[in-house]
Amino acid sequence: MYNLLRTLTTSIKSPIIVTDSAWNKMKTIYNVSNNKSFLFAASAGGCSGLNYEFKNVDCSVIDTLAKGSALRISMVNKDGLNVYIDPLSEMYLLDTSIDYISENYDKGVYESKFVFTPNSNLAGTCGCGVSFYMKDQN
């Protein structure tokens, strides 16, 4: 006879992680652009095979994406801001963290930018920070 352990939960895990620093920067971008939506996607290219894409978009872009796909579009939100995840990219972006770092010469940070960090069990990245590859899960 086997002892089986089953865990049940009603909580829904977010497909991506967004830091407070990133949310604060998105709020600043929204105040200038009036677009409350951001689109997070992956595209082919870069030195590791896939590139991160993060864009401030008008809601019509999300509507067009939703109409053109039979897949559900995932979203994370905070304080009225929304980050939509491209449904065709979601499997590549699971557990990716979006952060925003500010220029700080004392710490060797010479530019302010969004930084994307994949789950190290699922993906790896090269030194450029905008390119990544999926790890073999076998």
Describe this structure as you would to a colleague.
The chain is of the alpha+beta class. It has one domain: Hypothetical Protein Aq_1857, Chain: A (Sandwich). Helices cover 20% and strands 34% of the residues. 17% of the residues are buried.
Average pLDDT for all residues:
85
Q: In the CATH hierarchy, what is the class?
A: Mainly Beta
Could you give me the name of the CATH homologous superfamily? HesB-like domain
Strand order of the largest sheet: 4-5-2-3-9-8
- DSSP helical segment count: 3
Which regions are unreliable across 5 or more consecutive residues at pLDDT < 50? 1-9
Topology order in helix (H) and strand (E) letters: EHEEHEEHEEEE
Might you state the CATH topology name? Answer: Hypothetical Protein Aq_1857, Chain: A
In helices, the fraction of residues equals: 10-25%
Q: Which CATH-level-2 architecture?
A: Sandwich
Structural class: alpha+beta
Number of domains: 1
Count of beta strands: 9
Percent of residues in beta strands?
Answer: 25-35%
Cα radius of gyration in angstroms: 17 Å
First-to-last CA distance: 28 Å
Q: Please summarize the sheet with the most strands.
A: 6 strands, mixed
Mind sketching the topology for me?
Blueprint (H helix, E strand, L loop, with lengths): L15 E3 L1 H14 L3 E8 L5 E8 L1 H9 L6 E5 L2 E5 L4 H4 L2 E6 L11 E5 L5 E3 L5 E4 L4
Parallel strand pairs: 1-6, 2-5
Antiparallel strand pairs: 2-3, 3-9, 4-5, 6-7, 8-9
